């Protein structure tokens, strides 16, 4: 029997370009240092067991019950249609589904991946436990991390790769399944979230083109602020699509403007400015200029997102509070709630203003994350037995 596997994947933050990404426009994103882990182990009980630790929910289904899905899964016109098959099982009394929509969608993803990837060896059992630091449904890529970590776990247990497979091959294989899993959760994702969390670092992405990884030559610091307002990326993407497809005035040009914002940001971040340790040098002036340009791009991007109708009062509060203290801010991810990014230039002359801003944000009851960006992507621990059991 194979040993226990532990797969971990970080969250992500979109610096510029969300929503435009869905229309194949440029998006700049980075991983954030919050991770989701999947602990998995084959079992002999012929059950698929999912233990959602934060959500306090255990879902168990006999593998034989899923047999009617194996045959049907290849003929689905969209991975999201797995929901219809699983709901049919529920209405026939063969499985019981939670009322919580996030849990239900996590179960649809797991069944979709299990039946697609492991169908041929479907007689064995598998137990998976999911534990995460990434706030769920907050714009920080929890669904991409879940989709990627679940895909990697199931691919490993179906012998599609092992510890000798080159990492780039593993990432490409996992990414292709994580994208399908994201389609189950989001309907029409661009693919930026799964690519970013698997690849790691800073990335520029345009749907259909190879992802570009880069290390920012400009020191970048952001405050990540979670409004704690629940949001749903699928709904927000669908809302923009209605306006886009009906040619609502200004929508297509807003998407084009966001594309050019991301291209400009990428151009700035790719520069390398080596700062001497002290004094005012031409490099310092150049860095100040770059940081001013970044701040302007962040504000412009937020203006376009507000125009597209994907901001929220809580996000607007952060943008206003940041502006009042001399900082620029924007929503990140799907919008409609969830998180905002506040850009904190390294060269900002008045450090007290950051404390004032943090107090203003906390007074709203929002949560501030101080986390690193650009951390490593998908990680697989093939000797997972060294981990303490998360249960
Ligand atoms: N810890 C977890 N346990 C179970 N399911 C999870 C977990 N984290 C994420 N998910 C899955 O991800 C979905 C959340 O996706 P959603 O797109 O709404 O938020 P997000 O990925 O955090 O935000 P964004 O897509 O804007 O970055 C949940 O509905 C669930 O299917
Ligand atoms: C809103 C969106 O652009 C980013 C969500 O993190 C959707 C996507 O690109 O799939």
By secondary-structure content and strand pairing, the structural class works out as alpha+beta
Q: How many strand segments?
A: 12
**Low-pLDDT residue intervals, each spanning 5 or more residues:** none
Mean pLDDT: 92
CA-to-CA gap between the ends?
21 Å
In CATH, the topology of the largest domain is named Ribosomal Protein S5, domain 2
Second CATH tier, the architecture of the largest domain: 2-Layer Sandwich
Q: How many domains would you count in the coordinates?
A: 2
Radius of gyration over C-alpha positions, nearest whole angstrom: 22 Å
Beta-strand proportion: 15-25%
InterPro entries: GHMP_kinase_C_dom, GHMP_kinase_C_sf, GHMP_kinase_N_dom, GHMP_knse_ATP-bd_CS, Mev_gal_kin, Ribosomal_Su5_D2-typ_SF, Ribsml_uS5_D2-typ_fold_subgr
Organism: Smittium simulii
Catalytic activity: (R)-mevalonate + ATP = (R)-5-phosphomevalonate + ADP + H(+)
Protein name: Mevalonate kinase
What is the element layout, followed by pairings?
Layout: E1 5-16, E2 27-43, E3 47-52, E4 57-62, H1 67-73, H2 82-91, H3 101-117, E5 125-132, H4 142-157, H5 167-186, H6 192-199, E6 202-205, E7 212-214, E8 222-226, H7 233-245, H8 251-269, H9 282-307, H10 313-324, E9 328-331, E10 339-343, H11 352-363, E11 367-369, E12 379-381
Parallel strand pairs: 3-5
Antiparallel strand pairs: 1-2, 1-12, 2-5, 2-6, 3-4, 6-7, 8-10, 8-11, 9-10
Helix pairs in contact: 3-4, 3-5, 4-5, 4-6, 5-6, 8-9
Bound molecules: adenosine-5'-triphosphate and (R)-mevalonate.
